[in-house]
Amino acid sequence: MLAEIIIRGIQEKKGLEIVSIDLRELKNAISEYFVICHGTSRTHVEALAESVEKEVKTAIGTNPWHAEGFENSEWILLDYADVVVHIFQESKRRFFNLEGLWADARQTTIA
User: Fold this and answer.
1) Residues 36/88, Cβ–Cβ less than 8 Å
2) Model confidence band, residue 111 (pLDDT cutoffs 50, 70, 90)
């Protein structure tokens, strides 16, 4: 499953507070899953994103359909259509609070 591959990529570079949000039961959801985590610095956030891209490319040969946020690396988004990855610096993650915005979806915290 794509979300599991993405999570492996995040864990490889020690991403923090990994959360998977299952959006499949929500009406008009923009994807099936969100995977959210944060890093400790700009460099860490970039390394997390690069690890996800490498892990997915190696496992299933796919690149993100869309990627953005590498310019300042405060919030990098990798869109794989069915799964959208949000990699934040911690302060931006707390500010945007995606987990709270999608609180009606099933959320799983990854150890």
Assistant:
1) yes
2) confident
CA-CA distance, 82 to 33, in Å (whole number)? 6
Q: How far apart are CA 60 and CA 78, in angstroms?
A: 15
Task: Give the strands of the sheet with 75-79, arranged side by side.
Answer: 66-68, 75-79, 83-89, 33-39, 16-22, 106-110
Task: Give strand ranges (E) for 24-105.
Answer: 33-39, 66-68, 75-79, 83-89
Of 80, 10, 71, give the one whose Cα is nearest residue 38: 10
What residues contact residue 28 under an 8 Å CB cut-off, 6+ apart? none
Q: Could you tell me if 40 and 12 are in contact, meaning their C-beta atoms sit under 8 angstroms apart?
A: no
pLDDT tens-digit series, residues 69-101: 999 999 999 999 999 999 999 999 999 999 999
How many helices and strands in the chain, by DSSP H and E? Answer: 4, 6
